[in-house]
């Protein structure tokens, strides 16, 4: 059994009268990759903040293994805006950065006390190539200007810098709050692969169900102020959760049957009840509470009347758009058909949102035009559209749009009833907007879009910060939506369920129309990339002279054999030089200038050893 690294026992947390957790317990062991699931507002982020010491709790225990290295990715990380990207990555509190700071301080001051210990720590923590590794991870997350000021970055870019910081720290436990938000699909798949291959332990809040299924080895759920732990991936969790809810429903049904009998007995009792009946009376009230338990809107389904939409939707005619040297579209043409459900995917910066804004008239193309049908009534959900008067109550936000909502077929809902369809119970409806969680505000924004009865929905990253329950409800709504739909999303599961074809923005105005969902596109692209790779190899080989095309390499050429022998000697010499430099740096007899020179040289030597060792391994296969 793996060693435990984190144990939570009987944890209780409340805000005034609102109880988020009651006597919750769970544990994480070495190598566990844990997904944390709950409805918005149920306390996911609060629990993470408790674990990292940013939030107090009422009672219980939170116990980490001694000297455990922990990294935390906040939902809204903060950096000094005047720092460069690279400087921000050296502002973290991980051990490698601390020992680098001590090393540089010793060099600058000329004080060599404790230098031997510092050098040993530099080796143990692989601190010599820390900067190179942080640049590699930043590049994977599409942050390439390492000297750009933090203040010049978008919120999404800042979160990616913070994610890189958490990963480069090489912690034993990494805690991530919605790490896939602000990542494009390529980055999500890179992170998924990185965490799957890593040996670190993971506790993560995410709504990405493919991510949960492919990365996580256990799921923790907060439901009805309790914590439930499932040893398996997301698919296993769904199976066992359904079993748990079925058992709970059966227990509630049994309680209801007994309750009816006990209620009849209570009504027949005289007002002055005998003492011997007190225990039965107390048991009745406990039974009443259990019998009246019900699922909190897990089975709610959204509904809205789809207004009429004609045959003509929109036609994009010769659309060209560029920003400086960046081409978004170039003479793009497209005819959108009735009831079409399109997904738009592509890396960040390829123009997906700009294309949507041009369609809506919020951005003008450089040339060309959109011809939109007269019956089209757009409903637009975007991250930028999330703007409320924070001092308004939730119910007032909806009532300012409509007091009564027509669902069609003679069905009508009040604003309050409509909000309950969006998982806002009556008590939550009278909260002020500023009290809502980020996900609850997204859900309210979505509600205000749908309540206007659009027949053409455009959703730009609708899944960010929405919980899985809300996503399931939204998916079912969109599947049955009697209108047109365009979705921009990095949520692969969501895209697979709701769209029937894709526009793929490859960048530089290259836009591909793919007839299928996201998984089908990835399967096709994998085959296409493999074929192109094989064709590229064949083409490269075909360009070589016939005599330079052996069927299969079986041994080294004379030149390679000589190179192989020289590499062995060069690597040995470099290792000797590295040992001498380390000894000299630890001697305490070097001047400040000599310390700097030898430190720079030892960094160069490590790089050379890595390069030559890699080449030696390549040649050794045929030696």
Shape: globular
Which structural class do you get from the secondary structure elements? Answer: alpha/beta
Discrete helix count: 20
Q: What count of domains describes the coordinates?
A: 4
CATH C-level class of the largest domain is: Alpha Beta
Mean pLDDT across all amino acids: 83
Q: Looking across the biggest beta sheet, what order are the strands in?
A: 5-6-7-3-8-9
Give the oligomer, counting copies of the same chain as homo and different chains as hetero.
single chain
Please count the beta strands (DSSP E, at least 2 residues each).
20
Topology:
Elements: E1 4-15, E2 18-29, E3 33-38, H1 44-51, E4 59-64, E5 70-73, H2 85-89, H3 95-109, H4 115-124, H5 130-140, H6 155-168, E6 173-177, H7 185-197, E7 201-205, H8 209-215, E8 218-223, E9 226-230, H9 234-268, H10 278-291, E10 314-323, E11 326-336, E12 341-346, H11 352-360, E13 367-372, E14 378-381, H12 394-399, E15 404-408, E16 411-414, H13 415-421, H14 426-429, H15 438-450, E17 456-460, H16 468-479, E18 484-488, H17 492-498, E19 501-507, E20 510-514, H18 518-542, H19 558-587, H20 592-620
Parallel strand pairs: 3-7, 3-8, 5-6, 6-7, 12-18, 12-19, 14-17, 17-18
Antiparallel strand pairs: 1-2, 1-4, 8-9, 10-11, 10-13, 15-16, 19-20
Helix pairs in contact: 3-4, 5-6, 9-10, 19-20
